[in-house]
Amino acid sequence: xxxxxxxxxxxxxxxxxxxxxxxxxxxxxxxxxxxxxxxxxxxxxxxxxxxxxxxxxxxxxxxxxxxxxxxxxxxxxxxxxxxxxxxxxxxxxxxxxxxxxxxxxxxxxxxxxxxxxxxxxxxxxxxxxxxxxxxxxxxxxxxxxxxxxxxxxxxxxxxxxxxxxxxxxxxxxxxxxxxxxxxxxxxxxxxxxxxxxxxxxxxxxxxxxxxxxxxxxxxxxxxxxxxxxxxxxxxxxxxxxxxxxxxxxxxxxxxxxxxxxxxxxxxxxxxxxxxxxxxxxxxxxxxxxxxxxxxxxxxxxxxxxxxxxxxxxxxxxxxxxxxxxxxxxxxxxxxx
Length: 336
Ligand code: UT7
Prior knowledge:
- It contains 11 helices and 13 strands.
- The protein has helices at about 25-30, 35-40, 55-70, 95-105, 120-135, 160, 215-220, 230-250, 265-275, 290, 300-310, and strands at about 5-15, 20-25, 45-50, 80-85, 110-115, 140-145, 165-175, 180-190, 200, 225, 260, 315-325, 330-335.
- Strand 4 (about 80-85), helix 4 and strand 5 (about 110-115) form a beta-alpha-beta unit.
- The chain is globular, with a radius of gyration of 19 Å.
């Protein structure tokens, strides 16, 4: 098989979460919420918060080194870095450049992907396409998020704040000659008419004359705003659709799928998706209980844990699926 025909597969995975555990009870000391409300509505019991030693690029580096080691490679084998994040170290340059410098990989391609909850899946599709086209050979794909420094710890922001946590996940993607192994398909979608249902209004280059007006602290537009009910409803519609699309494109049925690894936004969303698809609940990976919603990192963390506990092994057919801000939604079907 020529290099241009090569498909790609996941060679290694790794993740890193900061050590500080923040329980629902701790949040309830800061604003009006309760452990019971958070667990009932989202399934979350705790999440991790980073400190100044763990900016997004530092967490990305820790996850990346683990994934590269898991792949049996060395850092120098990587020729392309893709970083998915909605919480970059700085507005520019991209976090992929900061990560590259930390890894000492200067000179290779480095690019950020700004697709929020589906960022990791858009990045994996990009990595797969780069490898198939011969543009890259070994791609480091990382999702990394520090949410905790940008959340509204007042009653006004409680609907969003309780959901999110910090963390990073990394995957190494490389070529395979086996046409039945690796990424079998990707389905990528977006509907920008829902952009303001989950977004961060300020600061922003659409604001004049000053992209970072002092008023953003007063009107709280510096914090994420969410129409939770609408996001919930769209997620429960789009996720089953995109999973069905990936199956139809590849000729597999749901019965063939060994494990569904969905984005961890809300335990109730993922339970509802399994119910709507009539998919066995025990074949759905959930770890939102421990980490909250880590956005671009969540699928990578869940996949790594599923590999660690033996739920994903050689030959497993795994469906990855995500819905989130944008709106964006995506699925990838992958054979390990
Ligand atoms: O990656 C994508 C990320 N986002 C999502 O997937 C979010 C999808 N949406 C959701 O998960 C749910 O909409 C939430 C969990 C965010 C909220 O659940 P809900 O059942 O839709 O609640 P709600 O927003 O309709 O609010 C119900 C009540 C309200 O009080 P009243 O008006 O009934 O008196 C809220 O003010 O719950 C109140 N509330 C809270 N109470 C305690 C909202 N947030 C909280 C809170 N603690 N943290």
